[in-house]
């Protein structure tokens, strides 16, 4: 754990971290970008998940819908990731020890693993259900897991703000 603690302390003493901490506007601006980007991630991925669950966009093919929406999801995710990393380095030790932060990271990992599984296995026979409102059970489960994970990410992300000292 000494090695990890050393890296965390080092991150907090980098010039960028010190700038974020000492600036009146840097952290709030970065946090605002992070919140907006997460809102875009959750909003755009929800469109896809609700299609999988059969609640929205059922008249559109899944492939067409995901081609239009997912590039925006990835762009927003990258913005959220960069902003999140910038916030993290400014309080690395405190974030690393925060339970809500750790749960949020696990949920993001779970959402990613769910997505990988969906694309590797459920999408194998997408031609059979692409334009149908009847998505196979595995697709509906993937959509439900994704939606639940991202809603929980928002909840635990908000909890971080209340549990930091």
Global morphology:
elongated
State the domain count. 1
The whole-number mean of residue pLDDT values reads 96
Order of helices and strands: HHHHHHHH
Secondary-structure-derived class: mainly alpha
Low-confidence stretches: none
Rg estimate, integer Å: 18 Å
Strand content: under 5%
Helix percentage range: over 70%
Question: What is the distance, rounded to the nearest whole angstrom, between the alpha carbons of the first and last residues?
Answer: 22 Å
Task: Count every helix, treating DSSP H or I runs of 4 or more residues as helices.
Answer: 8
Main pleated sheet: none
Instruction: Give the tally of β-strands.
Output: 0
Give a topology summary:
Layout: H1 2-12, H2 15-22, H3 26-53, H4 62-90, H5 92-96, H6 99-120, H7 126-129, H8 137-163
Helix pairs in contact: 2-4, 3-4, 3-8, 6-8
Quick summary of this structure?
This protein has helices spanning 2-12, 15-22, 26-53, 62-90, 92-96, 99-120, 126-129, 137-163. It is mainly α and 165 residues long.
Give a structural overview.
It is a single chain. The longest helix is centred in the middle third of the chain and has 29 residues, at 62-90. The protein contains eight helices and no strands. It has one domain (2-163). With 165 residues, the protein is mainly alpha-helical.
Question: Can you give keywords for this protein?
Answer:
0% strand, mainly alpha, 165 residues, 81% helix
